[in-house]
Structures are given as structure tokens and as C-alpha cells.
Amino acid sequence: METFLLDAVGENDPYDKHVIDKCIAFVEDIDPQKRYLSSRRHITKAKFDTYFSIRTPVEQFAERQNILKNVDWENYTKIQTAFHKLGDL
């Protein structure tokens, strides 16, 4: 879900896409011994949280919620396809 949401936010704004890409690269490189980010789930969540820590360093939860609420989800074909597939399950 986190990757899906980051992709949707990145598609909406090239600047956010740049920040997201940098955050993803940072997380992928920061813990080569896997001491802290030892599972795929932890890595995915770290990428998501890193972006939002940059985007909203003080207002964390409320601002994250506002950002996600303000995305025009119906305009994203990737999202529509994914939700359609979920509906098929």
C-alpha cells in the first residue's frame, strides 16, 4: 500500500516524484548490513515514512492525511486498475 501511495503522489507532481525517488534511494543504501531494516516490510515503510518526514516534518499525521485526501484518486488509471483487481478478489 505504501509503494502504491508513493507512486500516486509522485505521478501527481514532478517535484514530489524527485523527493520520493531520493528518499527511496536513501533507504535502499542506508543500512547495507540490514541491522535495522531487516525485512521487505520495514524497508517499504521506511521509504514511505522518509518521504513524509521530509514533506511534513512537524505536522506528521494530520498533514499526511490531508495530503492523501487531496489527491484526485479517480484520475489515476493505475489506481483504478489496482482497485478493480482488488474487487475481483
Short description:
The protein has 89 residues and is mainly alpha-helical. The chain contains five helices and no strands.
Structure, described:
The chain is an all-alpha fold and 89 residues long. The protein has one domain (1-88). It contains five helices and no strands. α1 runs antiparallel to α2, α1 packs parallel to α3 (40-55) and α2 crosses α3. 12% of the residues are buried. The model has no long low-confidence stretch (mean pLDDT 86).
Explain the layout of strands and helices.
Elements: H1 2-12, H2 14-30, H3 40-55, H4 60-69, H5 77-88
Helix pairs in contact: 1-2, 1-3, 2-3
What would the keywords be for this entry?
89 residues; mainly alpha; 0% strand; globular
Report the helical percentage: over 70%
Mean pLDDT, rounded to whole units?
86
Shape: globular
Q: How many helical stretches?
A: 5
Number of strands: 0
